[in-house]
Here is the input.
Amino acid sequence: MTPLKKYIRPGVLRNLLRKAAEMADGRCSLAISFEGEVCIVEGPAPEVAFVEGGPGVSSVPIRFDQVHSGRLFLLADRPDDRDECGRLLNFLSYSIQELVDMEYARRSIAEEALAKYRELALFHRSVPNINTSLHMRDVVNALIDECRLENYPGELGMIFLLEPSRKVFRLAVQFGFPFGTYLQPMVDSALFQEVACSGRGEIVNDLEKEARWDNELPGLGSMILIPINSPNRCEGVLILGSRNTGVFEAAHRRSLTTLASVAGISVSNAFNFEGIQKLMDAIMQALAEAIDSRDPYTAGHSERVAHLAVAFGHTLNEAGGYRGRVLSDDELREIYYAGILHDVGKIGIKEDVLTKRTRLPKRRMDVVRARFQLLGQFDDFDWGHAFERLCDVNKAMVPDASALDFVRELGDRVLRRNGTSLRYLYDDELENLLLAYGNLTRDERREIERHPAESERILQHIPMQDGYGDLLTIIRQHHERMDGSGYPDGLKGEDILLQSRLMAIVDIYDAVTQERHYKPAYTRSEAMKILGREVEEGKLDSELTSFFLSNIESIEMLSEQVKVTKATHLSSLGHLSSL
Here is the structure.
């Protein structure tokens, strides 16, 4: 029973089997097996009666994952009952499989999110520990200490660094080897050279079978090699080894790559501070792309918002500023970074909420369809027509009143048979289908509205240069509205930063002019009307919005020029005036 809990709660299965047995009016017994062992039985039949191919026994497989499986059994003593009970068996197996698949997907998403959180936590912790000195020895010692702190497998370790003048890798630090062990032959191996040249980490869990390894260091069984890359080159290689085989996993490579990238920044910082600035820009771009990649319809949104916001600010400066206030070069840089990072908090939003395309997902609609089809066999119910109308409501942005009334009628409808009641639609399905607008429930909308505050929380530990004191505030406030209807703090009017009000305008403009899973892309003129209505409702700064709409063509052209010339990069933002 205990292994089964990993995939679905036994109590849920027991209740499903009990309800199914009641619907069959006691004419059959039901059971669930896991890995060949019967673990749940409902009905008068004993556990030993449920043998595949036994007298009166029907069964269908249940797939828990790629390794574990089970079966759903139905035992009907009377031959006359077997056909009708067989349909019940198929419906019940479909429902159970859907529940198992949904739980498996939920757990997979949770595990992925946990891995991302751990990687981000490692990044946050390692930055202040490794990036505290310009001395190479301090950096490599801090990197080795981080490896030990994380308890990676492998009792041996070493770091080789590239001597810039001689283009030769030399041992910088090691642990686990006997004193006086000569480790320089490692550099001569084809495996080391390929990692250093390609800049990609590798795991070799059986060195004896590795063609690129000629036993340069005798006694090693497995090894993980991670390049320490700076923005311009491979600065060194981090190596953990073991005398045993098969000890390293892909997760170790990912987290060690994070550590090595932090060390690479520190090493590069000793030679070229400008290299660090470029890497920071690359990291921010990667964060934005990581968020955008969760939903292909929002890909590139953060970068476009950053470009538009900088172009808007620069155009505003050229016209004399906002009520005489001109944004400085540092403030334009800050706006750019705020645009790149403003949606980072969506990493903490559930995937099924962030990318929700319909009111109910396809899997749930398949369950509803199967339920309608079953009910149609016992009730005077045109299930096909009803399901077709339900599909239209499910995909609609704004369903008409008659469609919603039809859904309510279905919600009130109950099949009563042999003392058992079966609803046509359940409460959670009704909650989604009866939405007057959009496809997000109140709780899901609250989930989405967490992302500005979540962005601030994720980014608050990342050290920023002096002069960017408003960065997190801009990010937190980009969904605030002038009338107080925004989130997360419900700020009004002048309590909202100028930069945040500017960001809100370009964020809306880009969102409505790009195709999303719930709407087509609007034209520029349609987007301008939408912004105009937002001003009329008191949500956007009227003066800023009027300026944006009056200069939209030049702002968009400048945005493209900024993108092409990379003028928004930190190292060259100050040259915008020369565009």
Q: What stands out?
A: The radius of gyration is 31 Å. The chain has 20 helices and eleven strands. Residues 567-579 have pLDDT under 50 and may be disordered. The longest helix spans residues 79-130.
